[in-house]
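Example record used in the benchmark description.
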Amino acid sequence: MPTPTQLDKYFDTAVPASLGFSWDSGGISLLVNDCESNRIVVALDATSAAIDFASSIGAGILVTHHPAIFGKIEAIRADDAVGKRLINAVRSGVSLLGYHTRLDNAPCGVNDTLCSLVGIEDTTEFIPCARLGKISSPVTPEAFGKLVGEALNSDRITVFANAPFVCRVAVCSGSGGNIVRDAYLAGADTVLTGEAKYNYELDAAEYGINLITAGHKETEQIVLPVLKDIILKGFPSAEVFVYYA
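Model output (structure tokens):
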């Protein structure tokens, strides 16, 4: 059974930090103790609910996509959202590990999983942490949006139809509106992401490419079974539980 440190070292091999962005936080966010844990929980975020779930089943490690600590913390306070979660984890004996953009970009990671689920094929990494591929037969933006919603079980689909058909799709899970210009220059007619700011909606209209948003959580929590499999490949005797918010 792994300790948090052993699990983190394993991830450095299985999903190297070089796959992510240099500004990203990754690895161990909180080390409560470095004892072995036969139970591990994977979740999208280190929320209080996820920490409580890990504690309730006796799991000493919570592995998430988004890191529990992102950026510099001046103080840990119980009246601050991040501080509250960290204090809860310490009290519960749950160490927190997170692997963000490196998991976005890893082969068979978040973006590859998203492409596979919605039928995007022949994908390439055209910019870091984004994919460009095609669908087998052109469809209208509305039809593709419906397909995405069904594949992700998402009711948060928004379709900004600026081109008549969807053929070549640029994909960036989570908050990926910033890829609109790169997608246009790469020849995409559609961008699929989780969420996008208003200015990127305007940019997509200016470039004449479709923009489809499906929800930040919905485009990323799909990686949790993959995250579970990564852990089990290195530690097959561990019990790994998937927590969905």
